[in-house]
Amino acid sequence: MTVTGAQHHGAAGLTSRGWWWWERRRSAVLDVGLGVVSAFECAVEGVTFAGQAGVPAAAGVVFGLLAGVSLVLRRRWPIAVVLVSIAITPAQMGFLMGIVGLYTLAASEVPRRLTGVLTVMSLVGTFIVSSVRLRHGVGTDAGDPGPAFVVLVSLFVSLGLTAPPVLYGLYIGARRRLMESLRERADSLERELALLADRAEERAEWARTEERTRIAREMHDVVAHRVSLMVVHAAAIQAVAPKDAAKASKNAALVGDMGRQALTELREMLGVLRSGETKKAPVAVPLAAVGAAAAAAAAAAEDGPCLDELETLVGQSRAAGMTVELVLEGDVRSYHALVEQTAYRVVQEALTNVHKHAAGAKTWVRLAYRGGEVAMQVENGPSDAGVADAGLPSGGNGLVGMKERVTALGGVFVSGVTDSGGFRVSCVLPERAA
After folding, report:
1. N or C: the chain end with fewer CB closer than 10 Å?
2. Is 168 domain-assigned?
3. Using the 8-state DSSP alphabet, how is residue 18 labeled?
4. Predicted local confidence at residue 9, as pLDDT
5. 429 shares a domain with 347
């Protein structure tokens, strides 16, 4: 059976905040208890007031009960409770209501100017009632104690009933607001930390993705180029073995050398990866992931190939039967390790594509050393129709990988078919990595 919100409120007195306007049941029990005590106090004092005013005692009791029980409303309407206590002060009733009402008023979010006005009204009312009682009730055979005594005692009584609850209420209100402010700041810091953790995780994921992409490019460059040359030499061995055993043996030796070089480069790459894994700390995983990726990239750049090895790279293609011409322009100089490695890999991948798709075509490799940059170009002419394709598999990622390498360093990469039917790959790299 489903109970609606109105039925639930009418049956149990509950709201979304708790018990009526109380947030906790303990607060409701406390206020109801204070209201009962205040009603009993005002009822007893109402009997005395009825006798002095010449009205029936029952009327004084009912009046005291109605006035005293209003203390239950102190959290919801603190101003009304204080006004009631001020109104019944001339009847010498509601001392507990006045003290508790002033405390609640000072601790609440009521504007401080209004709190000050009500406090002064309560102070003046208590002072006047105390003065009247002292003038009529104090006296000795020696004579009247004098107005100074009445004023001092009345002031002491009024301050004693007004100042402590107001000051304590102000303290509790300020402390409550401070705690709420600290709680809000803690929640804000928690949200900021969660946001920073999410961003760190995103950076770590980005670093892992970049590292996987870099590894894929390196593996592609190393394996594709070496294996392509090995396949070309293997085909040459197959063709010349029945006719020229010496040349076949020479080609076989070249295949072995290339295989060993490929294995060496793969071992170096795996060694960099293992060293990057051992440097990862178990704490602060996102930062460790970013640091490991950067360290692995830097180590790979330091241990990777450089521009001085281009002559050897071109010589390997010549040994495989390709006609390659290497042209160097400008004064030979050194660049950043990552820039030289990227330039080497671009030339390597371009030559690999020539082996795959334009076997037998004449190829030109141009390298220009400049002040703030290095430029390279690999261009091949058209190949014979019979050897247009060496039959090597292609993943279609060679040009994409070259462009990613170059643009990651802030360089420019251009590739496309030439007017003569060949293919040209050109790129310009800055002196240092971007």
Report:
1. N
2. no
3. S
4. 41
5. yes
DSSP 382: P
Q: What is the pLDDT of residues 26-60, one digit of tens each?
A: 878 888 888 888 888 888 888 887 777 777 888 88
Q: pLDDT for 226-236, tens place per residue?
A: 777 777 767 77
Residues 276 and 320 occupy one common structural domain: no
Q: List the structure tokens of 91.
A: 């009847």
Q: Which two tokens stand for residue 317?
A: 């293609």
CA distances from 1 to 4, 241, 252 (A): 10, 93, 88
Length of the chain: 434
- 111 shares its domain with 32: yes
Which one of 273, 304, 335 terminates a domain?
A: 304
| Residue 114 CB coordination number (10 Å) | 12
336-351 burial code (b ≥16 CB/10 A, e <16): bbbbbbbbbbbbbbbb
Tokens (6 digits) for 409: 């360093």
CATH number of residue 422's parent domain: 3.30.565.10
pTM of the model: 0.47
Our count of domains for the chain comes to 3
Is residue 187 one of the residues assigned to a domain? no
Average pLDDT over all residues of the chain: 78
**8 pLDDT band (50/70/90 cuts)?**
very low
**Residues of the domain holding 126:** 13-145
